[in-house]
Amino acid sequence: MKEYTYSEKKDTRSGFGAGLHELGKSNLEVVALCADLTGSLKMDAFKKDFPERFFQVGIAEANMMGLAAGMTIGGKIPFTGTFANFSTGRVYDQIRQSIAYSGKNVKICASHAGLTLGEDGATHQILEDIGMMRMLPHMTVINPCDYNQTKAATIAIAEYEGPVYLRFGRPSVPNFTPADQKFEIGKAVMLNEGTDVTIIATGHLVWKAILAGKMLADKGISAEIINIHTIKPLDNEAVLASVRKTKCVVTAEEHNRFGGLGDSVAQVLGTNFPAPQEYVATNDTFGESGTPEELMVKYGLTENDIVAAAERAISRKQ
Amino acid sequence: MNPHNKSIEELKDIASQVRRDIVRMVHAVNSGHPGGSLGCTDYFVSLYFKVMNYSTDFKMDGKGEDLFFLSNGHISPVWYSTLARAGFFDVKELATFRKIDSRLQGHPATEEGLEGIRVASGSLGQGLSVALGAAQTKKLNNDNSLVYVLMGDGEVEEGQVWEAAMYAAHHKIDNVIATIDRNGQQIDGSTNEVMSLGDLKAKFEAFGWHVLEANGNSFETLLPAFDEAKKSTGHGKPVMIMMDTEMGYGVDFMMGSHKWHGVAPNDEQLQIALQQLAVQVASDY
């Protein structure tokens, strides 16, 4: 098992804030809109240094999506910022009509996704956003795994023409991705080559997949670990090449088992190369209040859960 | 410059032709929304043949041009006819309205690349937000042209309209001229029956807008209202024209009722309507 180390834990939302600030300097067409959550989204630096390109929208997310769509007309590249819940479910029709169907170059940047929002509870812990966004034609869906990758993704999506949903979170997690690693939309990142089982993870579950890989190695099981930061378009070739080799797969995500990464992978496998698959995901439930760590344990999203799922998947191989 | 810059007499003739197109388009597919389309015909003809500065060589970015957004997308027939008559695309294409493989979708869309349309609309309440975003980009680009947007009166029952109204005043978006088609009708009945709108002029003034009123079925009052609205831009406030129209205007049996909101005329009704909509030089598509 390849060794992965990190010097510090950092939150992915700060990676977004840093990437956005860098874009402020490097791309004069980039503008930012925020619905009264500037501090939470780490957009303060952009606001301070580029005030003429920062737009405070107030608590009015529907208006924010329409504004962003309109700002693209004339060449601006708008980045909207609010929590993942208010970036998707609250404004689904605005995104659908004014952004996706209209093909507008808007970057919907969504923080505090998933259970790791923690104590605020289920009203804010959206576990359905990946599903909603990947169902929209024209939409690209990205869920990076750590600070460096979120920063790189933020910068990369400004260069891509078209609507993007960029999902990140609140807690500090190991920052292990090399700072100079190029972010390629739609390209899977191979973290460890193995032969017995494929583990495909996204977002905060990627580090846990690495921990699980070590535990499996100690048991004599060789796990191939893939970081899928782009859920749509999915890197079908990488998924198929790996599962053709290992003959079984575990998918891991901080999202409902319906509609997310797991279903994306299942669709590719089911239509090309059927193989045993185990899901590490929430089981069609809302979250609740608690610390992020407690919630990840209670809802089955730890390295132990990935190890158990891997063993189940291997046992189902023909 | 407006590429046509027509006289009032010419505008009246064009409006009659557009109204003929509207009733023929909805009759051909036995669907679509003639009532609001007929009521707003004079508004559209004013914009595209007199008021707005634009090029018929359509570019999505619209830099240096006045932009128009239709928020109540269901009155697409009047927009399609006006765009075709103004030279954005061949009037023959009007015959494809609402048919399979057409660029003239039931509600306006950009997906098929129809010239003149910059955002999809139909799901109500979204157009004002889009127009405000486009207006702010014009300011960032030091582009002094204006942004026009039309909404229905029933449409302001959508909450997003008020989010946008508040935002426009707060950010002093004074390069937008919004218009509400105050025809007093919506699908289920009059706005008074369905959802009382109250004093819309006072409501928008309370939200910080500069509000004018005009009769939308008279070029003699509509054109001066546009002149005044233009003069009111650039003074720190968003500008609104409360435009009174008669749904179905120009076809007597379609006027004064919500019943022709989304119903097409039959063969006999079409002939009666066309007799009432005379043009000096008829040039039906």
TrEMBL record, chain A:
Residues covered by the Transketolase-like pyrimidine-binding domain: 10-175
Pfam families for this protein: Transket_pyr, Transketolase_C
Record-linked InterPro entries: PDH/Transketolase, THDP-binding, Transketo_C/PFOR_II, Transketolase-like_Pyr-bd, Transketolase_C
Domain of life: Bacteria
SMART domains: Transket_pyr
Name of this chain's protein: Transketolase family protein
Automatic annotation (TrEMBL), chain B:
Keywords carried by this UniProt record: Thiamine pyrophosphate
Claim: Transport is one of the keywords in the record: no
Presence of keyword Aminoacyl-tRNA synthetase: no
Coiled coil: none
All residue ranges annotated as the Transketolase N-terminal domain in the record: 13-278
Highest rank taxon of the organism: Bacteria
Obligatory cofactor(s): thiamine diphosphate
Cross-referenced SUPFAM superfamilies: Thiamin diphosphate-binding fold (THDP-binding) (SSF52518)
Gene3D superfamilies: 3.40.50.970
PANTHER family reported for this sequence: TRANSKETOLASE N-TERMINAL SECTION-RELATED
Family assignment from sequence similarity: Belongs to the transketolase family.
Protein's UniProt name: Transketolase
